[in-house]
Amino acid sequence: MTDSSISATSNAAVVTLTTTTESVVVLTDILSSVSDAGEGKLVNATVALTPGTAATAATLRVRRGSGITGTIVQTVVRPVTAAVADAVSILALDNPAAPSSQYAVTLQMTAATANTTVAAGAAVASAADVTPLSP
Questions:
Q1: Over the stretch 8-65, which tens digit does the pLDDT of each residue have?
Q2: Does residue 69 contact residue 20 with C-beta atoms inside 8 Å?
Q3: Shortest CA distance to 24 belongs to which of 81, 82, 108, 100?
Q4: What pTM did the predictor assign?
Q5: Distance from the CA of 76 to the CA of which of 30, 47, 48, 94 falls in 20 to 30 A?
Q6: Residue 58 within any structural domain of the chain
Q7: Which domain holds residue 85?
């Protein structure tokens, strides 16, 4: 296994989501190549938000790449209360990961009739050993 301490961290400034449109809220740096067949990438992200009027749920996704069209690695859907500050977290394992990987953390609201404000967000991505244990 290569050095598992390889990591990237990005923080989001204030982001406004237009009603129910999926948007990138945090973007990791590009991680170095994976050299062992038993390595994947682990992404951990948290987003602080205030849901817009009528919002009922927040969908947080980790996608490969830098936008909303990349392959979905993990999705979390969590109930929220409109206009009440909240935080949503996600943990994703990308296995097998691309040799050099960047990840976009996206947010999409359900039923929002007004914009949602993301006050802050952070993501940490690192190499992870995913080699199965032998019996």
A1: 565 657 889 999 999 999 998 888 765 566 678 889 999 999 999 999 999 999 999 9
A2: no
A3: 108
A4: 0.87
A5: 30
A6: yes
A7: 11-129
